[in-house]
Amino acid sequence: MSTFNESTSSSQNAKVAHLTSQLLASSSASRRSDPDPDAPDEDELFAELEAEIENDDGPLREQGLKELQREMERLKQMREDMHGKYTELTDEKEVIRTCSSEPHCVIHFYHSNFRRCAIMDKHMAALAPKYFNTRFLRVFVENVPFLVEKLGLKVLPCVICFVKGVSKDRIIGFEELGNADSFSTATLELRLMHTGVIQKDPHSVPVVNGVSSVAAHGTRLRQDRHDDDDDFDL
């Protein structure tokens, strides 16, 4: 009996994971700049997936539908929270709250006077629709003086990766991206993937270790230095 239950549970998890990945793929595709006009919308996909598990055994079918409905609600909430888009926050308290509540969050701290920040914006905007489970934000440094001080921001552009409210890694300037303005979006993508803040498989649970910060060169935000802990817990 135990073996049967474990087998059924494993089958359920695999089924729900498969359905969830399809829903996420559909949601991400709808946010691309060139969405497929023939692709079904989420309501159509839900109906199709519901029919797909219609022929399963009673317990599996019921559990699968419940999981699918919960996943749909989660996706709708994430859409309302601007997942899949590269957005700007101007209120410092809201930045802290968002970083604390989002499991995976990437923030570009920028200044409008710095040309390289505009280059980083372009790549962040391209990645946001691709990784729906990760929140992509931009924050103007003059709006967040406390965070600038606490995080020890001295060089821009600066991209900080937050996992469960803790800063796990930061990309300072372009040194780690080829040290050239012409780096590709894929280069930034691989760098973020290494940290674990973005994941190809939305159902994988990566083991994310704190990555020590590295020295980088770029436009100086200010010359003074502060002793600061790179793992800042929000």
From TrEMBL:
Compositionally biased tracts (Polar residues): 1-22
Stretch list, region Disordered: 1-43
Keyword terms, alphabetized: Coiled coil
Keyword Chloroplast: no
Segments forming a coiled coil: 61-92
Name of the featured protein: Thioredoxin-like protein
Top-level taxonomy: Eukaryota, Fungi, Dikarya, Basidiomycota, Agaricomycotina
